[in-house]
Amino acid sequence: MAKVIQDSQLKNILIVEDNADDVKLMRRALEKSGMQLEFRLADDEASLRKALDEWHPDCILCDYSLPTLDGSRALSIVLESGLMVPFIVVSATIGDEKAAEIIKAGAADFVLKSKLHKLPSSIASALKEAERKVSEQKMRLRARELLGETRPPLPVANPWGDRDLRVLAIEDSTEDVDLLGTELRRQNIHFVLQNVIDEVGLRQVLTSFEPDVVVSDFILPTFDGLRALKVVREYKPYIPFVMLSGVLGENEAIETIQAGASDYVLKSDMKRLVPVIVRSIVEAQNCELREEAEKRFEKIFHHSPNGIVVSHRNGKIFSANYFVQILSGYAADELQNLNLGALIRDWLALSAALSRRQNRDSNNRYELRQLELVRKDGSTTVVEVGVTPVSLMGESLLLSTIVDLTDRKEAVRVQQLEQIAEQREEFVASLAHDLKTPLIGANRILEIILKQDEMLPNAMELLSEIRNSNLRIINMIENLIGVQRYEELEGNLYCRRTDLVKLLKACVNDIEATASVPGIKVNLRFPEKCEIECDEFAIQRVAQNLLDNAVKFAGDGGTIEIDLSLDREKVILNLFNTGALIPTEEICSLFQRFWRSSHARRYTPGTGIGLYYCRKVIEAHGGKIDCISSAESGGTRFLVTLPIHAMSGDRRTDSSITAGPH
Questions:
Q1: To the nearest whole percent, how much of the chain has pLDDT over 70?
Q2: Model confidence over 578-591: pLDDT tens digits?
Q3: Cα 63 vs. chain centroid, distance in angstroms?
Q4: Long-range contacts of 115-120 (CB under 8 A, 24+ apart)
Q5: Which residues pair with 266 in a beta bridge?
Q6: Which residues are registered as beta bridge partners of 38?
Q7: 3-state secondary structure (DSSP) of residue 407
Q8: Which of 216, 329, 558, 587 pairs with 490 at a CA distance of 20 to 30 A?
Q9: Whole-model pTM above 0.70?
């Protein structure tokens, strides 16, 4: 056992425990492994947070019940910190249901204090599993970072639509099958049920029946529930699998969850069955969507026509795509043991230049240079290396791109740069689509839930927050796409005759339908008609961004005023909202890329590109956007000026413009 732990490089152990005798017993059990370990103790939330901030443990051992902190809360704090370290519950006893629940929440294992001799082997297994998870998640850099792993709330409406729920029951007792059907009918669930009692019948039915959920007894005459789970996963990797048993001890409950079961329900507590089934189906649907998005991301990563390397700040390589392997002559496993400083000459100088650039201007996060790449055989080639910082699971990393420039003529270089731009656009579009798909799907489910008649007020509030969070993410993605489009196509607008009154009213209706802040009063002063030449899609995004900001900061019971007027050859949009003010010293930075006001950073998520996008679009049309925020006016005002006629360099489809009376 000592060798197993040494191979995992275990050094630092954080013990969350208030009993000094139990701490000694745990230390003694681990020191028998023959390693020189460093221990640190915590016994409440404050000391745990301090240890996580100041120290990097390789493993955390936590009692389940402490005077001011329980194991579930401690696990949540560790997960929030972003540390990918094994969390093992060490307790006298917590009961089978709580044990299984904390394993599902993310704990690596559960060890009884009466069996501390099992602790070294439990830690070794947990470390091995943690290394595997870290490797997988860091290879899926952007997909995992943006999609997240949040668990969906328990829905009160079925996620399988209007059809009957398809249930596969693995049960040898006809009475228990009847009990399952009775509980589903009691919850007004319309269902189709197939029943099997052995492995042969299970394999046969899986080839002809598409279940929404599998419900299995733990003990069967010829095989058990864990074997049934393995068989189901061979055929249906995403199908929810719920263990239904008369009795399930702590060890069996933990083993069931660790083996991949969605949940378990005791036959004495059948009221949990339908909520568990519904939640398990939603989780499985989200898991399948995430997996599909990650596979698409990996395909883009590995088939990029340029080199992509993810590394530590010191240059140690996490992962590199196939192009880097071909260019350098190193295999994938060799690259993971390599430092970028050894692969790219002067890479450390490039990294240092990036740090200096960030210190001068936090918005400028990219450094590009032509350097030499040293191949495995010692030969060199000229490459263009770009490096930018990224953050993943709380860890600061670097993303480097490598483009081969050897013997490239100027015409070839221009052609390849155009291909790179196309690949970048495809990458952004594909990633945006894959990110939006699960969010839109979740929103559809949430919309169904919000229409239910019976629901606790706090549940409604939670679901509304989740829906609005999804809408904000979708809005941020659309802003990212919009910025990329206008940086590449600026001066080549797709203008046509557009009625601003109609456009603004549609935007106001959309905002009022999705606004999360109640009681906001919106006053409109529009002419009957006001037509200008503009890129309708881009101006609509500008209006949506400005209105969304106004709703966010107007607050409960606030007021928004929108005034559209005509002044000779231009139109003026005046948008005012009451509420929090923008500090005067921050107004000049308001429209910079990735910059956010101090108030926005405290209260609302975002990318800091919404107003930057607005400025780019307005200026591309030959217009101007300004902001005034003062205590005298009691709020913040955005003034947008646009010419009625598009500039001569813009592409237009209709130049016949009219403006109605104010």
A1: 71
A2: 887 888 888 887 88
A3: 30
A4: 116/25, 116/26, 116/29, 116/90, 117/29, 119/26, 119/29, 119/30, 119/61, 119/88, 119/90, 120/1, 120/4, 120/5, 120/29, 120/30, 120/32, 120/33
A5: 245
A6: 12
A7: coil
A8: 587
A9: no
